[in-house]
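Appendix C reproduces, verbatim, an entry submitted by the partner laboratory led by Prof. M.T., so that reviewers can inspect both the input and the predicted structure.
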Amino acid sequence: MLPAKKTAPPKKIDSLFFSRDESWLRFNQRVLEEAQDGSNPLLERVKFLAITASNLDEFVEIRVASLLQRIEEGHNETQAPDEGGRTLVERLELMETMLQEFVAAQYKCWNEQLMPALRAEKIRVLRWSELDDLQRKFVTAFYDEEVDPLLTPVTIDPSHPFPRVLNKALCLSLLLRHKRKGNTTTMLGVVTIPRSLPRLVALPRAEGETAGSGVDFILLHELIESHVERMFRGYEVLGRAAFRVTRNSNLYMQEEEARSVLESVRAELHNRRKGDAVRLEIESTALPEIIERLRTNFELDPWQVFRTDGPVNLSRLMNLYSGANLPALKYPVFKPRKYHLHKKSTDIFDELRQRDVMLHHPFDSYETVEQFVEAAAEDPAVVSMKQTLYRTSADSPMFRALTEAAQSKDVTVVIELMARFDEASNIRWARELEDAGVGVFHGIFGLKTHCKLALLVRRDPDGRVRRYAHLGTGNYNPVTARFYTDISLLTADVKITAAVQAVFRYLTAEAEGEEYRPLMVAPLTLAGDLISLINRETEHARAGRPSGIVAKMNAILDRRTVEALYTASQAGVPIELIIRGMCSLRPGVKGLSETIRVRSIVGRFLEHSRIFAFTNGGEDEIFCGSADWMPRNIYERCEVLFPVLEPRLVKRLREEILEAYLKDNMKARMLLPNGCYVRVPKTGPGFSAQDHLMAVAAEETEEIPAKVAAKKAGKKAGAVARKISKSRKKVNEEQEDEAALAESVADL
């Protein structure tokens, strides 16, 4: 890599950057389009709609909450404009409009597209008034036995203040009036819906219908709502409506006040559940008096109230997807391709001494990565294990392997406590790992540990001590590995593994100044290295040499990097960006970014892999890693980009993986200079990158057993042929027909 060259500061081009928040909302719109797309299986469309609601929750409790807080603190005039040149107040005004329009589109999709389609398939979400006698009897028994004991009705009056409603907790609001004669005073009642119960209650089929003819549900809050008179005896219920409050979920920590990062995060998690209200969602049928009382109580402006024409919190529809056992309405089951060791390799370590192993999940099974860690835990020749953990699952085989390995090996884990919304589980993992004897560290205060690294030290049969490493673009989570696309590299390369060890020293001791190459490490070297690589392509183009950049990632927002891409484009460098989510770069602008194309692919799998290919004058260099081109990744996290060195793996990344994404005309959308996304025009047969990669994996999965069987059959045939050859002398003596022998071999 060339050192970054000093260049003149680029001219001010604020108008040529898209706003981060606007770009994010447009991404969620693309997810909503998948829910609206009738070519997708019906229940998958329901799942896409639920995902948009979950995405929107995070956007509101993090991005909107942060914006409101900064405005309240008086930063509108002092803070620099965002990527799109807007002030804080202007950003808020844009959000107000886009959020309200998006929520309206969500419920239109549910009411006008998905609900009718579901009913046509005999999948119904019923109101209480629609239940027949059998179903009412069933859910009344469920309510009496499972629900009623968990409910705490509250009437708001001078002796009963408004209860502290937890973040995103679904509640019922009721407008009440005493039945005493002459009483005209109204008051508010509140019931919190228990989080421990399913949000959708499966019902027996209506009378006269067979059990296999479909599936019926009732929303839990609808069931509770139908029984509120029993909880508020002596009151007349004038109105009722479900509501939900979203609160500020940012974590704020003071380093000098924290006894430890773990204790500080634990305290802030408690506060998150009670942060300031940011949004009120409430059924559109709610009485104006109920809405106004809730709005006043939560101190919200009118625009922060979202009236829902359907179930509050559409993310609950994920329960409908999982509760409806109807495979015909879902994507076909996909079995990932398993990695098979080379015939001459005795184990994974022997394999890695001969060649690097690259996996493309979920098309390649994640079991190989798990087996790498598990094999290290079980192997007495492995003396040391180090690993980073950002997000993992409750039943992770890796977690178990690390705890078991600690009984006989030196095991170190750097666990990120501030992985957003996984903090609680990560605190629990940290405690359990420490109890098992693992050395647990939390990285560097102020920097999230987001890199995906595992390092093993092993004394091999030849007596040499070697390092083996896994480097990835995704989390060590076998659950998300089934539907996130990611790259894994397993290697024993001396330079790469030595650099991985240097990164671990940085994380545990904050020891800088070591040699990290050939890795690019944030926040130490990544920023400069990226600019150098982009500038190198610029110089190649100016000199008439082959140049080009293909970069696939989740988001690109870093202004300095975008400006370097603009300069490269002006020099004629062809640039293809495959950006799933946010993109502040404006492509296709004459004289600025004419050679840049930006596409986004939203499909069955979440595109999570980060792959960066540089033509480099005809000598390709390709990197993968954990970092998007965002300020937080480049300057505020510990991230690692790693090179893929073996030519066969470089070829696979270029020709099999990246080329497939660039050919996609089914799920890809192109970003226009005005910020809108449009479907890639179909100039030929339809091509979906994800479908193609699944087909390739499935074909190879079917081929391998066939090859093994053929190999075994060939060995068997060869053995028989040898026996026949030996007996031929005797056969000749007895003048047996040679044709009969040939026929017997052919039968085998």
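Residues 695-747 form one domain. Additional entries are available on request from the coordinating office.
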